[in-house]
Amino acid sequence: MSGLDRQSLSLQRDALELIMNAKSGAATAGDLQCLEEWRVRSSAHTEAYRKAVIIWDALGTAARETASAEDRDFIAGRRTARTPAVGRRAFLVGGFAASSAAAGLLMVQPSLGVRPFVADLLADYRTETGEQRLIALGEGVSVEMNTRTSIDRRLASRGTSIELISGEAAISAECSEERPVSVLAAGGRSRSAKAKFAVRHGGGPVRVACLEGLVVVELDGNSAILRADQQLSYSARGIGPVATFDPTVVAAWQRGLLIFREEPLVDVLAEVNRYWQGRIILLNADLGQRRVTARIELARVGEVISYVQSVLGAQVRTLLGGVVLLS
Fold first, then answer.
1. Looking at residue 82, what is its pLDDT?
2. Which of 97, 132, 218, 267 has its CA 20 to 30 A from that of 49?
């Protein structure tokens, strides 16, 4: 992004904050005067104000509909898919909570669509939005990292140990039983000597899926065994039940695809957003429950917007920064 683009975005976000404050119901005459003085400071300020008003109108719609608080924060520019929230002010906007600002950097969870900041930056391996990466760790272990994934290499007395900080990774292990591979995620451990398995950690329950071989999942002194085409999830509540899955769907991303079979649109968009340079925001709860069967190439993931518009009849509105509103 050029310096001019950065300046325009910065001005637009400043304008939006001023408008939000003016519309909050707690603005003083001085606040309104400050906004007017800011607006006429230069032609760039005037243009930023004009664009911020358009976004504010979209935010008004979002507040009345079903967009989450995180989606509204994203539109406002306080949270992006690439950067953490940095607290400067705390405020309420039009009846919904804005970002919770605090001194210093917020540790934002992946479930908000924002990657954990400090741990992410310090990770040994990481991928950006839409990027995939294959790393060889030696001792018969390789890891394929999906989009927005962060991994740390951990010391181990025997074998290979990594921590999945966030994201999704497919592990291939051809080790001796004495030197297995272990994958740590959210307090649990998945280990195997000879297997292909995937671990996904997106802020909610961790999902472990075994594609080949055998994987042992351990959490708080409890354990479960997965065999080919079996998966489970675990969280602070414990290890969930073992269930079968369709490997062509779970591992589709390794072939450059996303496959959905009768999935609610809201879940489809949540998955697509992991690969989208921006955010697709659904403002219609009924539309979100429409079932979708689709095969999407990751290289053309934006086609889901055309699909929702042409097949499901959604209204589409595109904003700056890759934000798309569907209603």
1. 40
2. 97
Query: Phi-psi region for residue 94, left (φ > 0), alpha (ψ -120 to 50) or beta?
Result: left
CB 139 within 8 A of CB 121: no
Structural domain contains residue 111: no
160 and 131, same structural domain? yes
Domain holding 90, by residue range, is: 3-106
Top mean pLDDT of 37-51, 80-94, 194-208, 275-289 is at 194-208
Q: Are residues 87 and 17 in the same domain?
A: yes
The reply to whether 22 and 102 lie within a common domain is yes
Confidence of residue 146 (pLDDT cuts 50, 70, 90): very high
